[in-house]
């Protein structure tokens, strides 16, 4: 009986390790979020300039823009995580889900980086008077935030 008990403990430990790794993977890709929100992680180019998508200096973690799409109301709310700046929102939105939506520009457009999201990626629209941005993955943003340097 001792061998059976040890085998079950090993199976349980293996399951816990797998479940934890799977949970971390889902969290790191923002597949799991609170209240169906979607976050865009941005970076800035310190001691350099942007040439297209290339930074000639050092990348640094910048703002996190969070979006909450409310399909029944055809609205998208957005804010900068940790900022005292007031949130904004779009009305007149076509919303498929939290990762796919498009809204008409309004007075709040200059407060955010996009007025449309396609497959979880913000769509730049210079004509909408939104803020310029460079987005990165959550994992890369966290590495930058906690000291990893990319150039």
Summary?
The chain has helices at residues 2-28, 138-145; strands at 38-46, 50-51, 54-55, 58-70, 75-80, 88-90, 93-97, 100-103, 116-118, 121-122, 135-136. With 151 residues, the protein is an alpha+beta fold.
Task: Explain this structure.
With 151 residues, the chain is an alpha+beta fold. The protein has 2 domains: 32 residues; 112 residues, no CATH class. Helix content is 23%, strand content 34%. The strands form 3 sheets. It has a 5-stranded antiparallel sheet with strand order 6-5-4-1-11. Strand 9 and strand 10 form a beta hairpin. The chain is flat and about 70 Å long. It starts with a helix and ends in a 6-residue tail after the last helix. The model has no long low-confidence stretch (mean pLDDT 85).
Proportion of strand residues: 25-35%
N→C terminal distance = 57 Å
Helix content: 10-25%
- Low-confidence sequence ranges: none
Quick tags:
single chain; alpha+beta; 23% helix; four-stranded antiparallel β-sheet; five-stranded antiparallel β-sheet; 2 domains; 151 residues
Write the SSE topology.
Blueprint: H1 2-28, E1 38-46, E2 50-51, E3 54-55, E4 58-70, E5 75-80, E6 88-90, E7 93-97, E8 100-103, E9 116-118, E10 121-122, E11 135-136, H2 138-145
Antiparallel strand pairs: 1-4, 1-11, 2-3, 4-5, 5-6, 7-8, 8-9, 9-10
């Amino acid at each position: 009986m001792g061998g059976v008990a040890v085998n079950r403990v090993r199976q349980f430990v293996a399951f816990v390790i797998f479940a934890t790794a799977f949970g971390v993977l889902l969290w790191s890709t923002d597949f799991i979020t609170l209240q169906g929100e979607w976050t865009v992680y941005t970076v800035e180019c310190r001691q350099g300039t942007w040439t297209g998508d290339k930074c000639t200096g050092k990348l640094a973690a910048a703002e996190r823009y969070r979006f909450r799409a409310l399909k029944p109301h055809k609205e998208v709310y957005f804010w900068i995580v940790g900022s005292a700046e007031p949130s904004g929102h779009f009305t007149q939105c076509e919303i498929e889900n939290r990762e796919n939506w498009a809204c008409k520009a309004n007075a709040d457009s200059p407060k955010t980086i996009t007025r449309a999201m396609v497959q979880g990626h913000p769509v730049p629209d210079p004509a909408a008077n939104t803020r310029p941005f460079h987005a990165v993955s959550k994992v890369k943003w966290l590495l930058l935030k906690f000291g990893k340097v990319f150039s």
